[in-house]
Amino acid sequence: MALIAIVVTAFAYSHDTPEVSVAMAVAMNELAEKELIKHFRHKGTWLERVPSKNKWVNNDVIKLTEIGADPAVLINNNTYPIPVSSRTDDSVAISLYKYDTENTKITDDEVYALPYDKPGSVQEQHRETLEEVTEDHALHSLAPAGNTANTPIIETTGEDDGTGRKRLITKDLINYKKTLDDLKIPKKGRVLVLSSQHVADLLIEDKALQVQYQNHKEGSISENYYGFEIYESLYSPVYDGTLDKIAFSSVTPGRQASVLFHVKATGKARGTVKRYLAESSGDPQNRETVVGFRLYFIAIPLRAKGQGAIVSGTV
User: Can you list the positions of beta strands (E) in 5-124?
Assistant: First the structure.
């Protein structure tokens, strides 16, 4: 409420001196930026399961370290000295993605005449839009670029849904679970983010999942469904006919995919947040305020193992 009051006051009245104007603008921006950070949580989504690595960020760059091989464990050893091995870690610095919202204008007439807090509504809309876009982009980033031994991609094998697409069936999940078991991917922490198509496929086949789906309020649909934590996303990465991932926001048609990742093999980080503001007091011709936001954020795999996808097969 304090932020809204300050924003409305600043939009509605001019400042007495240039010094007061500058100080007020700085305070307003700091409050607005803190408010966006406070509520930027992706609450109730699969992205909550990705560990935060904010402490690794410096100047909107994150330094990642891929830990080397695990040590061997000797059982009932009676041979000494015990062997010594070294562990080679690889480090890489990655710039966070930069997300800019398009600017929104708010006229002084609107501030005075509207029966609701439009400046506060605009700020909330920008935050929600940033949350949606960063979540979609994060899921695309966590999806493997292609089918490899360490990032397996399988195709669905169910019946034709009437469009030439094969439905996802529980048998596919059971087979995929075995594939991950063979790769020694830890069982605890396997998250499967289902596309809307694949959610519908499983709901048609599995009555038990229907009950869980109808009863879940937010977060995961199921915490243990054939060994997976199940979430749903309206956005889905798409793959071409050779199981190569199509670029984010591309208009190239492809096949929807559900994304598999292991919690301990992923990380997310938020960098700086900045609000850009041009007040109406500096625009005597139009008498309108223009506001926009910039956010630095990233969610990526931390190692080249533990990601995968299930792509809709074709008849």
Answer: 57-58, 61-66, 90-95, 97-100, 104-107
Asked whether residue 248 is domain-assigned, the answer is: yes
Q: In terms of domains, do 6 and 129 share one?
A: yes
φ, ψ dihedrals at 162, nearest 5°: 105, -10
- pLDDT at residue 28 above 70? no
Q: Using the CB atoms, write b or e for 146-172: b if 16+ within 10 Å.
A: ebeeebbbbbbebeebeeebbbbbeeb
Percentage of the chain with pLDDT > 90? 57
DSSP 8-state symbol, 52: B
pLDDT at 67 over 70: no
Q: How many domains does the chain have?
A: 2
Inside any domain, residue 33: yes
If asked whether residues 98 and 189 sit together in one domain, one would say no
Q: Which one is predicted more confidently, 223 or 259?
A: 259
Query: Would you place residue 5 in the very low, low, confident or very high pLDDT band (cuts 50, 70, 90)?
Result: very low
pTM of the model: 0.81
Residue 243 belongs to a domain: yes
